[in-house]
Amino acid sequence: MAECTFFGHRDCPDSIEPILRKTIEKLIVDNGVNVFLVGDSGNFDKTVFRVLRDLEGLYNIKIMLVLSKFPKQSDAFNDYSVLPDEVLLAPSRFAIDYRNRFMLNRCDYVVTYTVCDFGGAFKYETMARKKNKTVINVAALAD
Question: Is the torsion defined by CA of 121, 27, 83, 47 positive or negative?
């Protein structure tokens, strides 16, 4: 059972969706990835979650929407939502960092959308490479 997580810039364009879908399908079919951890911040995460929900009808996959804080409304916590203890107990200003570390430490594969060499997405892409995770930058595939 292989796991994949995602890190990308908040302002990721919707045009990345077809490349992202193809990448995720390849991970499922060719690499046996069946658990996907996605964050809850920014357009990249929203696009990933949308693609995964669509693919869920075609493949036997598990989607975990890893939250960075407890939702304000109880209905915002759904069947996909996970709030790890280490994130819940983290100081609020570090919650996203704790969430990202939780996801990175669990996964075998990391799909990123990074177009610059700064920011959180780049930081976690770099950390993933240092941890010898398989990293796929979909921004590079779009060129």
Answer: positive
Separation between Cα atoms, residue 131 and residue 26, nearest integer Å: 22
Residues spanned by the domain of 120: 2-141
- pLDDT, tens only, 98-137: 999 999 999 999 999 999 999 999 999 999 999 999 999 9
HEC per residue, the chain: CEEEEEEECCCCCHHHHHHHHHHHHHHHHHHCEEEEEECCCHHHHHHHHHHHHHHHCCCCCEEEEECCCCCCCHHHCCCCEECCHHHHCCCHHHHHHHHHHHHHHHCCEEEEECCCCCCHHHHHHHHHHHCCCEEEEHHHHCC
**Domain of 129: which CATH number?**
3.40.50.450
In the chain, how many domains are there? 1
